Give the backbone structure.
Amino acid sequence: MRKYVLKRVLTAVFTLLVILLVLFILMQLMPGSPFNDEKLTDDQLQLLYEKYGLDKPIIVQFFNYVKNMFTGDFGVSYKISKNTPIAQLIASRLPISIGIGFMAVFIGALIGLILGIVAAIWHDTILDTIATIISVIGVSVPSYVFALALSFEFGFTLGWFPMLYSNSAQLSSSILPSVSLSMFTMASIARFTRSEMMEVMDSEYMLLAESKGLSGRALILRHALRNALIPIVTVLAPLIVDLMTGSLVVEKIFSIPGVGSLLVNAIQSNDYNVVISLSFIYSAMYIVIMLVVDILYGIIDPRIRLAKEDG
Amino acid sequence: MADIANENKYPDDGYSQDLFVLKEDAADITIDENFASQSFWKEVRAQFLKKKSAVFGLIAIIIITLLAIFGPGMNSYSYSDQDLSQKNLAPRVAWLEGLGIFDGSETISTTSGSKTTNGYEDSGLSDVYYWFGSDTFGRDIWTRTWSGARVSLIIAVAAALIDMIIGMSYGLISGFFGGKVDMVMQRILEVSNGIPRLVIVTLLLLVLSPGILTIVFALMLTEWIGMSRIARAEMLKLKEREFVLASRTLGAGSFFIIFKEVLPNIIGPIITQVMFSIPTAIFTEAFLSFVGLGIPVPQCSLGSLISEGFNSFTTHPYQIVPPIIVMALLMLSFNLVADGLREALDPKFKEM
Amino acid sequence: MADKIIEINNLDISFKTTAGLVHAIRGINVDLEKGETVAIVGESGSGKSVTMKAAMGILASNAVVNSGEILFHYTDDDGQPAMVDILQKDKRWIRNNINGRRISMVFQDPMTSLDPTMTIGKQIMEGMIWHYKTPKKEAWDKAVGLLKEVGIEDAQKRMKQYPHQLSGGMRQRVVIAIALACDPDLLICDEPTTALDVTIQAKILELIKKVQKERHIAVIYITHDLGVVATVADYVNVMYAGKIVEVGNVNEIYYDPKHPYTWGLLSAMPDLDTDDDRLYTIPGSPPNLLHEVKGDAFAARNKYAMKIDDEADPPMFQVSKTHWAATWLLDPRAPKVQMPKELSDRIERMKEAVRSAGKSID
């Protein structure tokens, strides 16, 4: 187990370094950095170079850059909000995005699990068909279509929920965005849970458990669910990526002041510094989540937890 | 051990003596009818066609593809023709007009309530028909929807095929050689998998200018991983099979074995994966367009059409409906076909 | 007979599949007395496992029982002898009274038949706690005892381990311990050694024999390997395409087989003594039971097929008090056909070997 965790951590750190290297190179190549400003004189440039350590060897620069990124010193924005430190821009927005993302994962995972389990237990019945239809629609329709439909129906026509995000009514105005974001997660988890459950229920050990005379409920709870849920943990990570992508659009539709809409703005207005900083934050979040999921997987699966240390 | 029905006392069963002769057909019995009669692909096709949802998906894909090819040529408008005097006209179809639907009238909600207007009548356009309506620049939505579908399909299929080639080769090579090669290749894969797709795409768009090629390239960089995993897993399974070992004993080269012996045997799961990756590609393209990084105007894709429609969807909802329906139908159909294929190809799904 | 434990009479089962109705079991009869061992031998797909799953009430949901009965004799909770037709009982009753408690099953592949996420101990104790509400401590001690009984050392330590930490042979011992946990009267072993190394196979068979003797329970072996049968079974049922084609005691089946299919199976057994180094296989494959079989299902693969085989399914012809076979070759009108020369030579050699070992064969 220790070896397993160590391996995951090393991979994660290495991945992050690769990403930082790419970002660093892009930073060097990008126009629009302070040093490309035509109004600067050579002397001023020289001063800036010294200030930012750009006269040092490239390797040192890179490690300075890594240090800055990890300490939250992302530099300043040039276009969106001139000379505002990016850290400050992000600080107010990140909690909003994480909050909505968390709500979406929660709703999606919960409903998805229930749908998947119901579909598997009563497979080939009307319940299964309904759950399958829901999940096929969920994976087939992009989250922003849901966002549009929901905001039109419940926001515009019925007026139950606000159409746009507002700071004064955070919870009620987060519901529509979270629900539309959660659709894909829900559908994927439902599909995956169903197929995992079906596979587990088809297995020899379920037959053995059945031959012991256990009741249906004991079979499902003690044997099927536990075995089916372990692999489900692994799909959470890729789903979070889709969630990040989806959040960009959903935040735009509901005018949510989160990091997603900030990234969209930054891309559209060519604010490279902000794009690169956000890329780092997204990558770091994703890598940490993946790492946590991997370790969690190791803990709940005895085959990994108790694997021989030399294997 | 008794009690088994005893019927052999005497042959009172009416069978005549001449039935009791040996057939002496030793030559015939070696023919194995069970296995000779069923071909794998025939079986797969039968299984696939039995699944109604998959057949529905296939038909929908064919219809949408045909419309994407011929739809834009079916009326006199082109995707970029603007006529500002004919903007925001609701759908109007000649032979449905009489029924009171698609007659060009629309209900507009305003702050003071809703009113029904007919743009065609108001502007005196008695013989002008926009089947899906016209947009805020007076462009024909029918033509734009199908040229958008065309662009989206081209992007998706191209990206999926390129991913297939890259991912498959990567996975097959990694799985076949195993050992150190596999380890290094898998570490590389793990690292690339650790970079969120969103980040790769946005960074790429910083460097390259938006357009079909850029989007295909972005999709190529992000979608090959799933494919390579499947190819590797299949390779690991097949590597130890007799026919591969036999081929190797006969002195076949590695690449011959990989591409001539193993590839034909894993084509099933690969096609399924391609079918699953097409909707992802359509989705990613739509997302990029929505964010404003898609196809440059006046060209359009389903994503950019939805994005345009979004701006006026509370006032003229009909503008956003066609691209959304076409896209949802496409994604749904590809998913259904992929599901059907997977089940038809997977022996686990066959009972008995 | 008073000591019968299970009687399967005229069992007939079909499966609903997407391709149509598959007639998997076509009227079979098996019975077994207490303490006896019967083997059901046949190729995969001949319906051996389906029959046993029917006896356990764990048939797949798409199975349809067309006719027949499975009579099970047992001692009820008040200590009175009782008899029940398992096919007439609902799943719940079977679960509470039969499965695990009175009939238990040992599965083919110990690598897949244990729950990978549950400790060995819990899996053994589960049945006892479920059926008898055995207190945890007692169940633990009993489970440790069972592990010792099936020959696992370090039983206390093994209790807390997971299946992947054990070798294949050990896992099969655990599966047997699970099967014995509730002191069943009948043990069904579904290919218990097929997935194991040859060296371990014999040990597992030895173990089952030992357990059977000590506990005086009846055992049904399901196998495709006549070699396994020879060492353990009292009676043998040879099954082909959902029917029993020959039944007899071990010696009758081995030394005086009557059905051409049994000849094929015996010829296909690997044999160290033969000078002929070709391994015999029965040509062709079992018929597709999706289509109703007319006449004798084995005819298409039978070197000795007669015209009558295409017309009618042969009845069971009695050979001796315990020996029956379903082949028209035993009909008085049929030409006299002898088993293949290679096989009769082989049987002679086997008899010789047994005689020289000083055992009797009748």
About this structure: The CA atoms of residues 147 and 180 of chain A lie 5 Å apart. Chain A touches chain B through 46 residues (CB under 8 Å). Chain A has twelve helices and no strands.
